[in-house]
Amino acid sequence: MSVAFRRESDEEHLEPRPELPIPPGPNLVTARGLSLIEAQVKELEAALAAEKDEEAIKAIRRKLRYWHARRATARITPPPTGDEVSFGSRVRFRMGKGPVRTVDIVGEDEAEPEAGRLSFTAPLARALIGAGTGDLVDFGGRPEAIEILSVGPIEN
Question: Has the keyword Kinase been applied to this entry (predicted)?
């Protein structure tokens, strides 16, 4: 039978899954952030060693490629020493007449907004960076929307 008439399997037409997107820019991490990356790599390597299903293996390998790239490009940033907000800072602030909030400025893979850990690329973090205690910061199109109450290094 001619090759033109043979039924091709559905597998031949599947598009490969794209790689997990790696955020642009530097991969700044805190010491905690690097340990989280290391833990993720170890967990995925253990899962890969135990997995038997080929599709699950492909998914794990895809995640591992992401985390290996993040580990290879990680740049540990020392804790800040000044009184200005920067990467690795813990910031206490108030927005308008709202409650006092505290956030840590961390790397993208370490960010957990609900836990008060903001990526240094987040709009709020970008607004805070460079400000010092007592400064009023513009945010969200409002002038002097944020009052910086205190700035210090993240305490682990």
Answer: yes
